[in-house]
Amino acid sequence: MKTEKLPSPETISRTPFPGSKKVYVKGQLHDINVPMREISLSPTTDRFKNITEENPPVTVYDTSGPYTDPTVSINVLKGLPKLREPWIEQRNDTQTLASISSDYGRSRLANSELNYLRFEYAKKPRKAKPGYNVSQMHYAKQGIITPEMEFIAIRENQQLEERYQKDNTLWQQHKGHNFGAHTHGGFISPTFVRDEIARGRAVLPSNINHPEIEPMIIGRNFLVKINANIGNSAVTSSIEEEVEKMVWAIRWGADTVMDLSTGKNIHETREWIIRNAPVPIGTVPIYQALEKVNGKAEELTWELFKDTLIEQAEQGVDYFTIHAGVRLPYVPLTAKRTTGIVSRGGSIMAKWCLAHHQESFLYTHFEEICEIMKAYDVSFSLGDGLRPGSIADANDAAQFAELETLGELTKIAWKHDVQTMIEGPGHIPMHMIKENMDKQLKECGEAPFYTLGPLTTDIAPGYDHITSGIGAAMIGWFGTAMLCYVTPKEHLGLPNKKDVKDGVITYRIAAHAADLAKGHPGAQHRDNAMSKARFEFRWEDQFNLALDPDTAREFHDETLPAEGAKTAHFCSMCGPNFCSMKISQDVRDFAEEQGLETKEAVNKGMREKAAEFQKNNFEIYS
Amino acid sequence: MKTEKLPSPETISRTPFPGSKKVYVKGQLHDINVPMREISLSPTTDRFKNITEENPPVTVYDTSGPYTDPTVSINVLKGLPKLREPWIEQRNDTQTLASISSDYGRSRLANSELNYLRFEYAKKPRKAKPGYNVSQMHYAKQGIITPEMEFIAIRENQQLEERYQKDNTLWQQHKGHNFGAHTHGGFISPTFVRDEIARGRAVLPSNINHPEIEPMIIGRNFLVKINANIGNSAVTSSIEEEVEKMVWAIRWGADTVMDLSTGKNIHETREWIIRNAPVPIGTVPIYQALEKVNGKAEELTWELFKDTLIEQAEQGVDYFTIHAGVRLPYVPLTAKRTTGIVSRGGSIMAKWCLAHHQESFLYTHFEEICEIMKAYDVSFSLGDGLRPGSIADANDAAQFAELETLGELTKIAWKHDVQTMIEGPGHIPMHMIKENMDKQLKECGEAPFYTLGPLTTDIAPGYDHITSGIGAAMIGWFGTAMLCYVTPKEHLGLPNKKDVKDGVITYRIAAHAADLAKGHPGAQHRDNAMSKARFEFRWEDQFNLALDPDTAREFHDETLPAEGAKTAHFCSMCGPNFCSMKISQDVRDFAEEQGLETKEAVNKGMREKAAEFQKNNFEIYS
After folding, report:
1. Residues with Cβ within 8 Å of residue B92, at least 6 apart in sequence
2. Which Enzyme Commission numbers does its entry carry (chains A, B) (predicted)?
3. From CA A490, how far away is CA B552, in angstroms rounded?
4. Which residues contact A30 (CB under 8 A, 6 or more apart)?
5. Do B588 and A336 touch (CB under 8 A)?
6. Model pTM score
7. ipTM of this predicted complex?
8. Who among A328, A576, A587 is closest to B340 (CB)?
9. Closest approach of chain A CAs to the CA of B228, in angstroms?
């Protein structure tokens, strides 16, 4: 029977952000238009000096795709415009296949009972011509700057360079401490993007079968990124919900989205998600492979897994989590753990190894996997199947043994010019987080680290977005390139839309706190704009500059709903008599008027100020 | 007209915690009963081996006071039982005054219009006999171990020692890194408590006029504590609400509560709060002083401020925030800041200094303040009136100039045997947090640091419990003794009950993450118990061990409401086929049965395991 609820234009969030407009910056090497969000600010007015002074707009990195651009018409039934199609065609190294290559994909297509839930406008898959490698790493190593690379350079800069020339005061920021990353180099150039990809220090996930994406990059020397997991489980949730969850996640700032569906119709659900996703999509192919053998891990085979990789690669999955580091000899190392193996993929492979007493087929067939990856430009996300699931198990022998193997596999992947990132833990107390980062950099030759949290304590189920947000901010600062979000439902249930938003906002905070601490170029600009607006009581600007304008406004209006309050020079926290900001304004105005250095200001200043106050009958607050 | 809503027994939260009971541990030196919460756990059952094994109960630090003990009858109109009264009397160094000493206090008492909202059972105030110093620091320096000190030793230990003898496996924890704190000394003894107080490294806030408190300690070598701010503002909220907010805040884990009321009836509101508070209460006396001069800072005088200190000391306030470090010469240092002065107290004193072009009377009269403090045992919380209000202003000249002055004042306070802690920032990017901690330890001779956050970014109003929870966890790890919570309403409005709970839970997480990272004795025990319960699918135990059992249960039941799901060996996240935990159980069981070291287990193990799986037709999941 027809059980699936399908997406419709009405079920997709498309409201633009308040006080913001979508702007597009043209490329110079390529014919590209790079989207960003421009937040316009109101002018600064001094009620005493009768001066008004413009505040330049603030451009922010925008992951939300065309959904927040009211000028773009989107039909979720047809999917997003195929931005990258001409770029891919111009490279002339791919072919369009007559039909799907995977047996499973063909069988689903042949099943007419699925017609009703099938994405109608699926295209024929594209694949590298025989003997070609279509990975961005391969191009980079040839010295080619692809449109994707230039797109990223412009996107990462967010017009900093241009704005900086106009007004560099707003760009003042603390130097930061970046633990040897290369983030003090100023603005990002297309060449830098290319070189980081060639070096393996950055990953540009961009399957040739996912032309809908707005290219983004994952690397220690770029802005810290975040991933949001969605996907239904045996405990149902519909295709409609999952597609909206994806759109909702990118609206609030998810840079990539992983579809971890384990329920029925995984294949069709994925097609709907990818065709409507402007961000890279990741999956854990072993989940679907396990469904194909009815949950019996021991019945998994290399052939079946291989068919699953091809199936998903031809749909357009941009990166695969593959737990090839869970080796037979490591399984017993988990025997004395408090929480054993907590990674689904890891436990599936451990079970297979035990059942067959054989080395993992992911490990033994790794080079064959590389061949598939480079034919579609799917990136590796080498899974940490033995990550600790509790504070007690942090940084143990099993975890680090696997990490060393992931380093060995990274070198093999790079030999094939396959883009690679490394997944990390998990549950780690604060003082043991840096050891993870340092070991990953060492073992994996600076391949991007992609961590889940880490959670810094086990005792707060219901708040694990926070227990993990603490660890995420720290490991992001230490050098992690992408932070996989954790929602408040972690350990308890499947996240709903509210949980997805809470998780994404928390991780945007962690990622930004990390960029600030690293001293990433321009990172502090938005903070400076917010603080200036705060000091000048420009409430609307404060809301619009916030990561979550809706909540900021709602919280403010809860106590002071009147429109007048939006221009009031105080708030409900202190009330007019207790506003600490105004007095500071007076001190500053004084020093500026006099054009004095603060030192001289002390004596001269204080005396005049005292007199002035007398004159005004001490009425400072209006 | 009668506008105030007063508390009533019905408006106070008294529900006990699920699966928990209040236990009282007797003292050995003194006749004291120290309350803690004991969480009982269900036994571990192995469905395969048919074994059940008891899990010892977990004792946790309990800030909620008698309110969560159903055997205690509480009448909010009469206030809490006066636990410390006999201890104070036995010291025989205090006198009960015939009447209130402060002019203001007397005038309020004489005002019959206030009768309806006055706390009826207020007692006559107590004060040190002439020439006596009744501070805990003074006793400690005499070598005396007071009942308060023994109470704290027992409370901090949470029966760790006793439990440890029974079962030390649960006590295994990571060593931690504590940056030179003295937290590796094992269990806390009364002597250690005394010596830390004498040394000035710990503060035991305990006004002789607040006998209702269950003594607690604030110091780098003890468990990290958290404070919750409550209090109404000009924008009204009632006495009823504020008292319930206090009870609500300690229920979820606030170790102390600050009453920052700035509205009308501050004096009476405070009486209601203190008489019903089992935790130390802090205030910022300058707020009330400013109300007394109708918000005109320049009209403040030392005499009026002194009267306010005495008024509040005789009501029982346990610690005063005093911004004596905001000196005239430092004010101009804030002139070029992005957000100037953001501390209310700081801006009030800056305004006074400007208006009079004189040095702050808090600074010039500091020794007189000390005389008042030691006559009631009020502790100093030396305020950071020049803390940065934005990332841009972090660690600047104004902030650090004030901190150096606070160090100078600490030595003066210690000369008078007055307990002292130091308040800290504010808004600080992650990489600049440690500099604050290190400078505070150096300048202030290891006096306890008490920080607000710090917030690690400015761009997330509505989520500042999280932006600051990150910084709080880190600075707690570095050595901060107490973390002042920040609620989601920070920068936007006054917190309601939900905000108070969100702020408190977030800060409990930060404080505990810090204890784990420091390797505080026994800190990991609750995490271990939680993780064991998680691994064994003891859902009820997971809920009951959680910082917030209600939310954990609610989130779980949202997807799996059935009672059966509470014993299911899977959850809605992965469903039965994807449960990563069971396989680990099998691996571990095997190794244990064989009594093998993991190394040998590899080969022997794998082969037998393989065979066993065949036998069971690969049916591992039931």
Report:
1. none
2. 4.1.99.17
3. 10
4. A87, A147, A150, A151
5. yes
6. 0.94
7. 0.94
8. A587
9. 15
